Recover the amino acids of this structure.
């Protein structure tokens, strides 16, 4: 008997697969960009199902609000080519199709025949669909408000991620911030309208 | 291996399908921006795996942290790649990866 969790999983999975297929096969790049919106949204839904609330919000903010807007921006700025068929020639598509279907077969065989040890749910993945969390939240328990709040399992992953970001993951966090700055400057410098001539750079 | 209840396998298979679709997009598109879309699909597939292992794999929030860093790197990559594509379009009036075959003017 499928639970609500299962139904939502298959809903999001179907959205992801259908919209990714549209990204893959649509003739018009604008349609592909809009299908990508649904893929990103459904992936955010899958993150919610997996108890990753902070990541789901980040996905919507960064992917849908940032990367997808950039992509659509790129499509619009190069709009002289939007009406041209963007697919490669048939002779180029056949090897790609063979490679991809072979890879998919191998991956699915590997995943279904392999033995994956599935651990018990982590405490921060207590979603509303998790019975224990609901029971804990409804149970009248003693203790301070803070303890009740901690026990309810409804505070999400953000506090944990915040702690980890400034303790165990401090170095990657700082490195990523530097990379982000460099990428921003690099993108601005590459996309600049008038490239600086070489002799001016040498003179300075 | 059954359809219900949904467990680790289902998320991994979903990620595998998304990865393969992204790879196919990358391989068969001529438009550089469409190739970039394929890369985004692949990164999303990897992220689904990371988050699924956080939930079922007993790796305390490590998977989610990695997924956050992957998202940030994807944003960097999209910004730089689109700057390159716009520059290519301005110089040679094309965004086709087949026609972009010059190393200099």
């Amino acid at each position: 008997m499928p639970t609500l969790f299962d139904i939502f999983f298959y809903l999001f999975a179907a959205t992801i697969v259908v919209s990714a297929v549209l990204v893959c096969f649509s003739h018009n790049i604008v349609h592909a960009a809009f299908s990508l919106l649904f893929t990103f949204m459904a992936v955010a839904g899958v993150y919610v199902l997996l108890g990753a609330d902070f990541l789901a919000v980040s996905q919507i903010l960064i992917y849908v609000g940032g990367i997808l807007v950039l992509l659509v921006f790129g499509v619009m700025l190069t709009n002289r080519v939007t009406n041209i068929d963007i697919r490669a020639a048939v002779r180029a598509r056949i090897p790609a199709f063979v490679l991809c279907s072979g890879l998919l077969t191998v991956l699915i065989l590997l995943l279904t025949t392999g033995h994956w040890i599935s651990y018990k749910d982590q405490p921060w993945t207590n979603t509303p669909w998790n019975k224990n969390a609901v029971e804990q939240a409804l149970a009248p328990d003693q203790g301070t408000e803070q303890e009740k709040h901690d026990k309810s399992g409804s505070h999400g992953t953000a506090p944990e991620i915040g702690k980890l970001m400034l303790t165990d993951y401090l170095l990657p966090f700082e490195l990523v911030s530097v990379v982000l700055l460099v990428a921003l400057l690099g993108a601005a410098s590459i996309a600049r309208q008038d490239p600086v001539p070489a002799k001016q750079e040498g003179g300075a | 291996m059954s359809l219900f209840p949904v467990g680790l396998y289902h998320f991994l298979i979903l990620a595998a399908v998304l990865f393969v679709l992204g790879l196919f997009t990358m391989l068969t598109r001529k438009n550089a921006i469409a190739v970039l879309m394929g890369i985004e699909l692949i990164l999303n597939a990897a992220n689904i795996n990371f988050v699924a292992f956080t939930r079922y794999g007993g790796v305390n929030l490590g998977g989610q942290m990695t997924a956050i860093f992957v998202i940030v790197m994807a944003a960097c990559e999209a910004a730089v790649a689109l700057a390159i594509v716009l520059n290519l379009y301005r110089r040679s009036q094309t965004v086709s990866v087949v026609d972009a075959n010059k190393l200099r003017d």
Q: What stands out?
A: Chain B is about 75% helix and 0% strand. Residues 24 and 38 of chain B are 8 Å apart (CA to CA). The first helix of chain B runs from residue 8 to 28.
